[in-house]
Amino acid sequence: MVSCFCHCGDIRFLVTR
């Protein structure tokens, strides 16, 4: 999950996940 967050570079993505 953290890797995807870093890859996407979007905090919102982490919140949505």
- Unreliable stretches, pLDDT < 50, 5 or more residues? none
Shape field: flat
**Beta strand count:** 0
Oligomeric state of the chains in view:
single chain
Helical fraction equals over 70%
Counting DSSP H or I runs of 4 or more residues, the number of helices is 2
Main pleated sheet: none
List the SSEs and their pairings.
Blueprint: H1 2-8, H2 11-16
Would you write up a description of this structure?
- By secondary structure, this protein is mainly alpha-helical.
- The chain is built from two helices and no strands.
- The longest helix is centred in the N-terminal third of the chain and has 7 residues.
Concise structural overview:
This protein has helices spanning 2-8, 11-16. With 17 residues, it is an all-alpha fold.
List keywords for this structure.
mainly alpha; flat; 17 residues
